[in-house]
Specification:
- There is one protein chain.
- The protein is an alpha+beta fold.
- The protein has 6 domains: about 5-50, Orthogonal Bundle (Helix Hairpins), CATH 1.10.287.610; about 75-300, D-amino Acid Aminotransferase, Chain A, domain 1, CATH 3.30.470; about 305-410, Beta Barrel (OB fold (Dihydrolipoamide Acetyltransferase, E2P)), CATH 2.40.50.140; about 415-490, 5' to 3' exonuclease, C-terminal subdomain (DNA polymerase, domain 1, Orthogonal Bundle); about 495-570, Orthogonal Bundle (DNA polymerase, domain 1), CATH 1.10.150; about 585-655, 3-Layer(aba) Sandwich (Rossmann fold).
- The chain contains 24 helices and 26 strands.
- The strands form 7 sheets. Strands 14, 15, 16, 17, 18, 19 and 20 form a 7-stranded antiparallel beta sheet that branches. Strands 3-13-12-4-11 form a 5-stranded mixed beta sheet.
- α1 (about 5-25) runs antiparallel to α2, α12 (about 420-425) packs across α13 and α16 crosses α17.
- It is globular and about 80 Å long.
- About 35% of the residues are buried.
C-alpha cells in the first residue's frame, strides 16, 4: 500500500469513526456494530503506527483541552512580509517571464506557523503584525486536520492558513439566535476561534489548517526543498492538507487564472485571490525583497465588480473615539452575490474629493469582494454639507487633519458615543445580561440617537420601525431583544453594581458589597469610606473610589433614572457558608463543573472568594493538571499554596 493511499485511508477512517461516535453519543444511533467499529479502529491504529502520522482529533487519542489566561507573544525569526499585488492577468505572465511557477488559492483566514520536533507538534504561532505573533499551540492541537505526529523526526517548520469553511460558518451562524450576534464572515470567525484562551471553544469551531509553504526541514537540501511544488508534495506525504495548486508558465498562467475563476462560486474555503510563486525556490530567494514584500511571489486580486446606483443620504456615524464617520446610503445594488445599500466613505477629505451630493449617480464595488466602497461619482454635485453638531449629543464638531486626511470629531468628552464601553458593561452577561446588545449593535443604536442614558435601553420600543430595518436586524431579532430587556428589568443588586462600572468593583466585589449592606442600594450610596473599608475585600483605596462615584451628581442622576425601570430580586442563599474567609483560584479545564463560572458561583454561594491570581492569601489553586508547568502552578508551588483537583475540592469542601 503506497504512503499516499495509507494517508488517505487514515483521513477516511478518522471521518467514519468520528461520525459513528457523534451519532452514538449525540443522537443515540448506532450506524456501525461494535464489531465493525472495533475493526475500523484497529485498522486506524495499525496505519498510524506504520506511517507515524496521527491527525488531530483521531479517535485513538485522548482529547485534552487547555485554557490559558492570555496568549503569549513571540517574535518571528524573520519578518513575515505581505505580498505585492496585481489585478492584471497579463502582468502575472510578464512577472513570470521564462520561469515556471506555481499558482494557488490565496486563502482568507489567519496565517499560522507550525513547528515540529522529533515528529511531534511543539509550537504554533500566528502571523500577528508580521514581526510578533501569538502562541496558540493548545488551539492548533484541536484543529480538525492538523497532524499531531508525523514521520519526519527532524525539526520541521510549515506555514499555512487557518480557515473555517463556508459550510461550517453557516452551521455556526445558524445556531446563533440573535441576528446581531451572528458573525460577519468566516475570516472574522476563524480569527476569533484561533485566538481563544480556551482550546475547548476552538475545538467546536472546526478550524482547518491548509499548508502553503514548507519553511524548513532539518537535513533536507536540494530535492524536495528545491521546488515550491515539491515542498508541498512532501508535506502531503506527512499528512498535511495543502493548498490547491497548478504549475504554470507565462503561456498558460492567464488560462489557469480563468479556471480558478470558474471555481470561485463552488469553492468552500474563503479565498480573496490567487498567489503565484516561482517553482525554483533558490531563484526566488536570490531575487531578495523590497522593504514591504518578498520578490519570490505575487498576489493576484480579482477585478472588482462594480454597479451604478443613486446616493440617497450621507449618514454621520459617531464612534467611541469621537470620530464621526460618513456613511453613504444608496439604492440597493447586487454585488458579488449580495445586496448592498451602504458604504463607508471614511473621512471628510474623501467626501470632498468625490464631490458627493444627494441624488448623485455613483458606482460602487466590494474591495476584495468583501468591503463596499464608492468607486466614482458620475454627477459630482457636491451638495453634501459637513455637520457642525454631533448627531448623537448635539455638541459642536470640529475638523482635524491627521496624516493629510481631514476627519470630523465630536468635541464633547461626555458624548454617549464615547461611552460605548460603559453601556457595554451595563448590558453584559455578568451585569443586566441583555442578550442581543453586542458592542456593534450598541454602537448603531447610540449613533442613531436611540440610547443616551441607561434608562433609554428600556424605551427602545419607541424606535421599533427603525430598529427592525437596521442592517443585521429584523422582526425576530427585535422581538428577542425587547423580550431580553424585559427579562433584564428583574435583576439583582450585585449585577446592577457591577454594571455601573464603579472603579475596582468586579463581579466578586459587587456580591460582597451587596451582601454587606443587606442588598440595599441606598445604604451603599450613603455609606462612608470608613464603613466601606470595613467590608472584607474592600480596602481604603477602593472605598474611596466608591464614595467618589456615589458623590458625583451626574452618576446619581443616571442611577435614579434607571432604578425606576428595575426590580431588584433579593437572592435567597440556602447553601452552607462553610467557605467563608477562604480564597480559591481556578485554572485549566474542568470536568465536574460545566465551566469556571459554575465552579466560581458554587464557591461564592458558600461564602468563599475566587481570585484571578495566586497569592500568599490563596487557600488553594484548583487545577486538574497539577503536574503542568503553568505560571499559576509555579507561583502556587513557590508560595506553598496547595494545588488540588476538582475531586479534591468537592470531597474536601462541598461535602456537608
Amino acid at each position: 500500500m503506497a504512503d499516499e493511499v495509507k494517508i488517505n485511508r487514515i483521513k477516511e477512517l478518522n471521518a467514519v469513526l468520528k461520525k459513528a461516535s457523534e451519532d452514538y453519543y449525540a443522537k443515540d444511533e448506532s450506524p456501525l456494530s461494535d464489531r465493525e467499529y472495533d475493526a475500523l479502529y484497529d485498522e486506524l491504529v495499525k496505519l498510524e503506527e506504520e506511517t507515524g502520522i496521527i491527525l488531530a482529533g483521531s479517535p485513538t487519542q485522548t482529547v485534552g483541552y487547555e485554557a490559558v489566561d492570555e496568549l503569549p507573544k513571540e517574535k518571528h525569526p524573520s519578518p513575515m512580509l505581505s505580498l505585492g499585488k496585481t489585478k492584471s492577468r497579463e502582468e502575472l505572465a510578464d512577472w513570470l517571464g521564462d520561469h515556471e511557477g506555481v499558482l494557488s488559492w490565496k486563502l482568507d483566514g489567519l496565517t499560522v506557523v507550525l513547528t515540529y520536533n522529533n515528529g511531534e507538534l511543539t509550537k504554533a504561532v500566528t502571523r500577528g503584525n508580521g514581526e510578533i505573533g501569538e502562541v496558540i499551540t493548545p488551539n492548533a492541537r484541536v484543529f480538525d486536520n492538523v497532524p499531531l505526529k508525523i514521520s519526519f523526526v527532524g525539526e520541521l517548520v510549515v506555514r499555512g492558513e487557518a480557515v473555517i469553511s463556508y459550510k461550517d460558518f453557516e452551521k455556526i451562524n445558524a445556531s446563533i439566535v440573535n441576528d446581531a450576534d451572528k458573525y460577519k464572515n468566516p475570516r472574522n470567525l476563524c480569527s476569533g476561534s484561533v485566538r481563544q484562551l480556551d482550546s475547548k471553544i476552538t475545538a467546536g469551531r472546526h478550524v482547518r489548517f491548509v499548508a502553503f509553504n514548507l519553511v524548513y526541514a532539518a537535513g533536507e537540501d536540494g530535492g524536495i526543498m528545491a521546488s515550491a511544488d515539491g515542498r508541498l508534495s512532501f508535506l502531503e506525504s506527512l499528512g498535511f492538507e495543502t493548498v490547491e495548486r497548478v504549475k504554470v508558465t507565462s503561456a498558460t498562467v492567464v488560462d489557469a487564472v480563468g479556471e480558478y475563476e470558474k471555481k470561485i462560486a463552488g469553492y468552500d474555503i474563503p479565498s480573496d485571490g490567487l498567489v503565484l510563486t516561482y517553482e525554483d525556490v533558490d531563484y526566488g530567494i536570490s531575487l531578495g525583497r523590497t522593504a514591504k514584500s518578498p520578490r519570490n511571489a505575487i498576489a493576484f486580486k480579482w477585478a472588482d465588480e462594480t454597479a451604478e446606483t443613486t446616493l440617497k443620504e450621507i449618514e454621520w456615524s459617531a464612534s467611541r473615539t469621537g470620530l464621526i464617520n460618513p456613511v453613504a446610503i444608496f439604492d440597493p445594488v447586487e454585488l458579488e452575490g449580495t445586496t448592498v445599500t451602504r458604504a463607508s466613505v471614511h473621512n471628510v477629505s474623501i467626501v470632498r474629493e468625490l464631490k458627493l451630493g444627494l441624488g448623485d449617480r455613483i458606482t460602487v464595488y466590494k474591495a476584495n469582494m468583501i468591503i463596499p466602497q464608492i468607486a466614482e461619482n458620475l454627477t459630482k454635485s457636491g451638495n453634501v454639507t459637513v455637520p457642525d453638531k454631533c448627531p448623537v449629543c448635539g455638541a459642536p464638531t470640529e475638523i482635524r487633519a491627521l496624516n493629510e486626511a481631514e476627519s470630523l470629531y465630536c468635541t464633547n468628552a461626555d458624548c454617549p458615543a464615547k461611552q460605548i464601553k460603559t453601556f457595554s458593561q451595563f448590558v453584559s452577561r455578568d451585569a443586566l445580561n441583555i442578550d442581543g446588545l453586542s458592542e456593534m449593535t450598541l454602537e448603531k443604536l447610540i449613533d442613531m440617537g436611540f440610547i443616551k442614558e441607561f434608562d433609554d435601553l428600556f424605551r427602545l420600543d419607541r424606535y421599533k420601525e427603525k430598529i427592525v430595518n437596521m442592517e443585521g436586524f429584523g422582526e425576530k431579532s427585535y422581538s428577542n431583544l425587547i423580550e431580553s430587556i424585559k427579562t433584564a428589568s428583574k435583576t439583582t443588586l450585585p449585577r446592577f453594581l457591577f454594571g455601573l462600572g464603579i472603579p475596582g468593583i468586579g463581579v466578586a466585589n459587587a456580591k460582597v458589597l451587596a451582601k454587606a449592606f443587606d442588598n440595599d442600594i441606598e445604604k451603599i450610596r450613603k455609606a462612608s469610606a470608613e464603613e466601606l473599608s470595613e467590608v472584607e475585600g474592600i480596602g481604603d483605596i477602593m472605598a474611596s473610589d466608591i464614595t467618589k462615584f456615589f458623590a458625583d451628581e451626574e452618576n446619581n442622576r443616571k442611577i435614579d433614572s434607571v432604578i425606576a425601570d428595575l426590580e431588584f430580586e433579593v437572592p435567597v442563599n440556602t447553601s452552607a457558608q462553610n467557605l467563608s474567609g477562604l480564597t480559591f483560584v481556578i485554572t485549566g479545564s474542568l470536568e465536574q463543573f460545566e465551566n469556571r463560572n459554575a465552579l466560581k458561583a458554587e464557591i461564592e454561594n458558600r461564602g468563599g472568594k475566587v481570585a484571578g491570581s495566586v497569592s500568599a492569601k490563596t487557600t488553594a489553586l484548583i487545577n486538574n493538571d497539577a503536574a503542568s508547568n503553568s505560571s499559576k502552578n509555579k507561583t502556587a508551588k513557590s508560595l506553598g499554596v496547595t494545588i488540588i483537583t476538582e475531586d479534591d475540592f468537592i470531597n474536601t469542601y462541598l461535602k456537608e
